[in-house]
Amino acid sequence: MLDQTDQQILKELVADARITNAQLAERIGVAPSTALLRTRQLVDRGVISGYHAQLDFAAIGRAVQAMVSVQLKGHNREEIDRFTDRVPNLPEVVSTFHVAGSVDYLLHLAVPSTEVLRDWVLDHLTTDPVVGHTETTLVFNHLPGNTGVLP
Q: Judging by beta carbons within 10 Å of its beta carbon (0-12, 13-18, 19+), is residue 15 exposed, middle or buried?
């Protein structure tokens, strides 16, 4: 269970994971040693699993984003494992979600152009023997997340 101090630490780190421990301690009103200990405990418990840079895809030449829904032909473990082992590691894939419902996967892609997107879907999905159907949706604007999921 997370107490109020843990929740405050998470809120601050989600907003800016680059803050120093001294800044964190000041913002949540605890001693720096307490902030450091509590943050380390959150890491050790697996609550914090990493710190990541948020990229501006357009600035790195990948201005086109899309969500691709993928429906597999079958649902045996071998086909699922094959797809899961291969697709998330492709450089154009930002995120992969294995989901329940009418599709099996949602892929978030970032690519330089719609032509590259089309070719990527053709080369990596429609030629895959385990893929039954795909549907591509262009992303107009990727809105930043918030800390609303925090307890």
A: exposed
Closest CA to 103 of 134, 145, 147: 134
| Strands 64-72 and 105-111, sheet pairing | antiparallel
pTM for the structure as a whole: 0.83
CATH number at residue 30: 1.10.10.10
For 80-129, the pLDDT digits (tens) are 999 999 999 999 999 999 999 999 999 999 999 999 999 999 999 999 99
- Domain span at residue 21? 4-44
Question: What one-character DSSP code corresponds to residue 18?
Answer: T
Three-state SS at 15: helix
- Beta strands per DSSP E along the chain: 64-72, 93-98, 105-111, 131-139
